[in-house]
Every structure is written in structure tokens, then in C-alpha cells.
Amino acid sequence: MDPRYSAQDVVLCTLCQTSVAPMYCEVWHIHLCKDCVENHLSDSSQVHKVVSLKQYWATLNYPKCRKHPTKQCELHCEECDVPICSLCISGEHLRHKPVDISEIINEKKDNLQRELEELEKFILPRYEEIASNLSVQKAELSENSQKLTAAIDKQGEIWSKEIEFIIKSLKTNVDEMEFEHLAVLDKQEDELTHTFSQITKCVAELRKLLNSKDVCLVSEYKSRNAEFRELPPKLKVSLPNFSPQEINTDQLIKQFGSLSALSFTTEKQDYSMPPQGAESSPLDRSLIDVPQVITAIDTEYGDILGVTCLNDAEIWTRGSNNKIKLYNLHGELVNSIQTKSGNEPGDISVTKNGELVYTDYNDGTVNIMKNTQIKTVIRLQGWKPLNVCSTSSGDHLVVMESDNNDDDDDDDDDDDDDDDKQTKVVRYSGSTEKQSIQYNDEVQPLYSSGGDKYISENRNLDICVSDSGAGAVVVVNQAGKLRFSYTGFSTTILFDPYGITTDSQSRILIADNMNDCIHILDQDGQFLCFIDNCDLVYPCGLCVDTKDNLFVAERGTGKVKKIKC
Q1: Cα distance between residue 477 and residue 387, in whole Å
Q2: In this predicted structure, what is the pLDDT of residue 278?
Q3: 18 vs 4, 15, 39, 428, CA distance in Å?
Q4: pLDDT tens digits for range 469-514
């Protein structure tokens, strides 16, 4: 079986759809189990070429080299991003870095597989949900129309013949509004049907490409997932009501009652990329009454500062040295890497693709680890990166402060330099700056000039920063507009916010370092509860897994506690 498929992606027989398929027919492009191979070959009127699935994936249809037509392109020049043959290496691609073209194809097919999974597991279900809501709206429309008709009839029975014309008029209005509303719903349903068809075609094409050995077809595939991520607007309808009035002959027309106007509004529905390893989020995951420590992981840090989930079974950690360490939930060290510069990492995060990201304050860089190789993706000038988080869209949000260092080493000026420092949050797509967030609508700084600042993106795309220098959590929306600030539950107890994270319900969790507890807020900044029963000692870094289990890095003990909350 192709090594890119995991045990969860077992290939089933195309014919019987039940047994594992170790064989593949290259002529008919179908997967076959051992029992179905004989039946497939029994049709002697057709040509067949059945090989093992492993053998099928081991061979590729290599393109002919344009420069050397007798040669096949079995290599790929990374610098020029083109397929090359063995003769090209000594020619115009001399000193370029060639790699086996199968690696490139495997990487592209990995991307195709991810796109297929996103379409099938996330995008299609969203469209199905929208279609289901349309059916509900139609049912509510019919029910509401029936109620309106019944109310009008009841009022009409009381009144005399002189109001029959009004009754007929109002019924006509109901029918017209229902017809108009139904026309709008039918139109959106038709658009959804068309989009379903396009997605289904795209899924079929992706499945075909995944089973194809044609390098050109695979390489030329253009993704449409970005188009499908733009979900149709949600139709919001204000259904009319009938308001009966007391009978007054002189005011007959006015007093009989009227229907409120039918109105249509649309609400944009946002699509968020699924987090790494996530299948789906529960519709409702309430907090338990008494949080419980599930496990405590002893790290080798004397002063642990941060933690981030790689998946539900492994966590990356950082402390006061130049090592970033990966532990499993049994406390076993799985991996340990040293920062590229040898400096202490400022913060760590994990992308939706499972890649480790860290900041280097002294070096002024943001770095990412891909396939054990560390690459600098952002190098700042005049600013120093503090903390970082990777967003659902694949961007990086970096908290940074201005670099006020000069050649004067006078310690007396250090405090003044801190007071003069500016702080901002910058959004990057790769190495490209997309957004800068620094001031509120009154052009006042959103963030203090000192202290630690952890950052997290909420599920509703709000940007949450815990500002220990200000003793506050500052939350802005996706556009950078201030939504609220939270300065603690009590005015008499100093709030000391450090680590911050959010869960599947858009709740905000903040580590209160000095008070040895966790504050939990809803997405609008309303206090919900504390976690203060888990014997926390100087909680610092926070993260949650896909099941909303909370991981707390304890600065006072060097432990990471997994808490069910």
C-alpha cells in the first residue's frame, strides 16, 4: 500500500466495497480485493492488467525531457521548479539542487488528499447543513402561513359581510409573500444544487488524480477549494405577523389588522480551515462542575514558559534555554530541537499542518521547522518578536515591540527605553505583512509598553492578547477593532495574565500567574468561572487539544498539567 495512506485510509475494493484491496487494474483503474480479482479477469473480451497496489504506486509515467527527448525527467530542480533529466544536471541546472520527482509528486498528492478530505469532511457537510436549514425555513414558512390564514379566518367570522373584501385582500397578501419568499428559497436551493454538482465533480476529479500516474495531469490540477470555501450567504427572513384589533365600524379598515412587511436580509457565513487532526467540533461542550487533573508531565525545564499541542497525544514545550522539546502524555521525551541561533525561543506555536513555529527575540526572527529543517520566514527590522500564534487560515499573528536599543549601555536609561517602546500585533501570510494592529479608534495604544504578551486566535476569529504589563486581556475583532478588555474578576486582587488560549466553544482561558488560577470568559468577555482547585503553581503557558482538554505549563514546578474542564 502506498505509504502516504495511514491505517485509517485503508483502500477498499471498488467492486464489493467491503474487503481491503491489495490489487489494482491499470486498464480499468479500479481497486480489487483477492476474491474479486478472479471475477474481474473472467471477462476475457476485455483487456486487463492487474498488479499489486504497491507495484502500481512504485511506478510513475515520467515526462519526456524537452532538452533531451530521449531521456525521461526523473528529477526535479527545486531552484527552477521544473522537471529535469539526468543530463540537465550537467547543463543549465549545474549546481542547482535536484530532488527525485517522486518526492514532488508525493507532496502534491498529499495536498490533493488533504483537499479531498476537506471537501468531503468539512465543506460538503457545511453545504448540507445550509440546505437542511432551507428545508426548515420552508416548513416554518408553511406553518406560519397557515397560522396567519387561521387568524384571519377567525377574525373574519366575527365581522360582517362588509369586511369580506379586506379578508380576501389580506389572504392574497399572504399568498403573494409566501410565493415571493418561496421564490427566494428556491433560487438559493438551485444555486446550492449547482454548487453541489461542482463539488461532486471536483471530488471525482481529485479521486481520479489520486489514482493517476500521469505527472502532467496531477501537476496541472488547479484547486477550487478556495472558491468553495466562500459559503453562500445565510438567508434571514422576518416572517409577517397578523395583529387583530377590536371591532370599530367607523375605523373598519384600520382596525381589522394588517400584516407586517416581508423582509429579506443576508448574513455572511464564514468558513474556517479545519485545525490539524480535527474531525469536527461538538455542537455543545459545557464546562464540568469540578475540573480534574488527568495527568502531570514532568519536563526537564527548571523554568517552563510555554506549551502548544502538536496533536491530542503530544505537546511542544519551551523554557529558559535554547531547547524546544516534544513530550507525549506519558512524559516521555519524543524530540528535542535547538533554536537556529542558539538563543532562547520567545514563544512557540503549531500550524494547522503540524509545523512548529517559534520566535527568536534576540535574533529578531520568526522561524518554522519543516521536515526537521529550520527556516526563517520573518526577519524584523526595528522590532523584536515576542509571542506568536498560527491561525486557522494559515497566517501567523506576531506580537512585537519596538527595538529601542542603542550603543549607550547606561542602566539608568533601561526603564526609560521600556516606557518608550511600542507594541503591536502584525498578521503575516508567509513572509508578507497583511495587517498591523496597534491603536484603538481614539489612536491610543491598545497594548502596554512592557511585560509579557501571549496571543491566541479565537474560533470567531477574534484576536486575544494577554498583556501582563497592563494587567488586562485585550480582544479585537478580525479587522483589528477593539471589542473589549478584561482586567480581572475583582478590583481588589491584582490580575496577572500570562498564557492565553481558546476552546471549541470560543471560550477564552487565561493563566493568572500570581494568583495560581485560570480565568474562563465567554467570547464576549463575560466571566464564567475560575479553575482554582488543581494546585497550580505559577501557571504560565496554556493550550487546548481538539477535545478541549487544557494543558497548563507551571512555571513554579516545571510540569505540564492536563486538565479536564
Answers
A1: 18
A2: 47
A3: 21, 9, 15, 46
A4: 999 999 999 999 999 999 998 888 899 999 999 998 999 999 999 9
The whole-angstrom distance between residue 60's C-alpha and the CA centroid of its chain comes to: 34
State the cell numbers at 105: 509528486
Single pTM value for the model: 0.52
Region of 372 on the Ramachandran plot (φ > 0 left; ψ -120 to 50 alpha; else beta): left
Q: For position 521, what pLDDT does the model report?
A: 96
Residue located via cell numbers 414558512: 141
Q: Rounded to whole angstroms, what are the CA distances from 107 to 104, 111, 159, 460?
A: 5, 6, 76, 31
Is the separation of the CB atoms in 264 and 237 below 8 Å? yes
Q: What CA–CA distance (Å, rounded) separates 497 from 478? A: 22
CA-to-CA separations, 11 to 17, 24, 279, 509, in angstroms, rounded: 9, 10, 19, 41
Which among 238, 181, 270 is positioned nearest to 506, based on CA atoms? 270
d(CA 461, CA 268): 14
Give ∠ CA 474-480-484 in degrees, rounded to 5.
35
- pLDDT for the residue 5: 40
Cα gap 176→514, rounded to integer Å: 65
**pLDDT at residue 7, rounded to an integer:** 34
CB-CB neighbours of 252 under 10 Å:
15
| AA identity, residue 501 | T
Which residue numbers in the chain have pLDDT < 70? 1-10, 57-58, 159-164, 245-257, 270-285, 405-419
Is residue 218 helix, strand or coil? helix
According to the model, what pLDDT value does residue 418 have?
63
**Alpha-carbon gap, residue 274 to 379, rounded angstroms:** 28
Ramachandran class of 429: left when φ > 0, alpha when ψ lies in -120 to 50, beta otherwise: beta
CA distance 215 to 88: 19
C-alpha cell at 559: 510540569
β-bridge partners, 165: none
Q: 169 is written with which cell numbers?
A: 385582500
Here the contacts of 359-364 (C-beta below 8 Å, separation 24 or greater) are: 359/385, 359/386, 359/387, 359/388, 359/398, 360/385, 361/385, 361/386, 364/403
Q: So what's the pLDDT on residue 6?
A: 37
Residues 6 or more apart from 561 whose CB is under 8 A from it?
Answer: 293, 295, 296, 297, 534, 536, 551, 552, 554
Q: Which of 418, 383, 389 is nearest to 402 (CA)?
A: 383
Is residue 329 packed enough to be buried (19+ CB in 10 Å), middle (13-18) or exposed (0-12)? middle
- Asked if residues 306 and 318 have their Cβ atoms less than 8 Å apart, the reply is yes
Q: What is the pLDDT of residue 9?
A: 47
Contacts of 413 (CB under 8 A, 6+ apart): none
Cell digits for 528? 464564567
Phi first, then psi: what are they for 150, rounded to 5°? Answer: -65, -40
- Least Cα distance to 238 among 97, 158, 141, 110 occurs for 141
